[in-house]
Amino acid sequence: MAEYIDDDVLVCRCEEITAGEIREAIRMGATDVTGVKRRTRAGMGLCQGRTCEALVQQILRQELKGEATPESIGFSTPRTPQRPVTFGTLGGDNL
Amino acid sequence: MSAYDVIVIGGGVIGTSCAYHLVKKGYKVALIERGDIASGTSSHCDAAAMITDKMPGPDAALGYASIQKFIRLSKELDYDFNFDQAGSLYVCETDQEVEVATGYVNDLRAEGYRVKMVDPYEMSQIEPLLAKDLKGGFWSDECAGLNPFKLCYAFVEQVKGKGLDVFLHTKVTGIRLNEKNQVEGVDTDRGRFTTGRVINCGGVYAPEIGRLNGLNIPILPRKGVILLSEATIPVCHQKVQEFGYMVTKFANVECDRDPELLKYNVAFTLEPTEGDNVMLGSSRNFVGYSLNTEIEVINAIAKRGMRFFPILKNMSCVRAYAGVRPFMEDHLPIMSEVDEMPGYYICAGHEGDGISMSPVSGELMTQLIAGEETELDMEPFRFSRLENRFL
User: Which of A38, B14, B237, B366 has the fewest CB atoms within 10 Å, i.e. is most exposed?
Assistant: First the structure.
């Protein structure tokens, strides 16, 4: 079993979200990575959750215990562009 | 399983608003949602409550009333949904647009709304990073922004456990009718519920729920794409939109638009978020339920954004996402009981106005169910206005 992450530990670096805030979202009804994301902004930043996703999954697994499976916890949705790209590049840069 | 006065199907902004307003009225309510709260259109959109996108007359009155309801809700609901009456700015690219806008603004002013024309100098004071070659625009300090999915949470959290039971990840498999065709219960993959009234708040999926009882609910998914910027210095302070796109709506005149923009119905809109990002939109097209973000659409939106806010050129986009609006051919939602099935209500089909219309929709459905006089004439919203209502 993975180690317990204290409530004051920053889990999502991009949006500065702590483990305690993630646990609060789970108490509110979040049962998956996306549910945590909407309730806390964890994973909404620059890296699209690449850094914090595994930790969010771990906290969900620990908090929901038997109710959670890897399938139910899921992943955050990968979105275009995979890493930050300027609007100039996306718009063809032909202004 | 327990019995409820009303069962609301769908945990988007319409369903959560209906649930909230029904509980406030004293009803015992269950909210059944097959995913999570706000997991569909209500979290794949932008959001604003405005009068300056409405036609003068009843449309503007409804827009104004919605803003007043949001002001009340922002005090009434404990969960913060980031309501911010920051105003909104429309910008004009051509003299023709300015001319149409002037007539439109005069009509709104005659009805008593706080909206005014602004010249390019005033525009640069309101939004310093706007392109400098625009011809004019109009501004209203009555319009407001908010976070759409937080609004859903706010509705739910306020009454959860105090009259509202929430069943997430629960899929409706049938709505039971008795021999008189009256609603008597709801079947789900997690058990049976007893109720005399059900509201189908499925949005783009309302047709799927309707089919369970042979109803033909003609809502189509109309996709929109939004690009999100990195967290940044303030690029804009309120919702900024191009007026060109609205000219046909407000004046019934043709205006020249780039065929590339017309192809995906791309119109410039920019909104700040509470996370210091900006949301750049958007498009409108019919491609089924797919949430793909096509590169051609992204390209057109980015181009259009840089036309109005050149600073975007060197700013990063961190993601694109799409949502599907519940489109109705006659541009009116269905908010009504199904005459042939007493106790079966539908509240869906708000297209791009679901967030801003959610407070009034929830109130109207509550008034309908309570048998009270409704705040608005419900005739235009009746299900029975439609043809071929049964499969």
Answer: B237
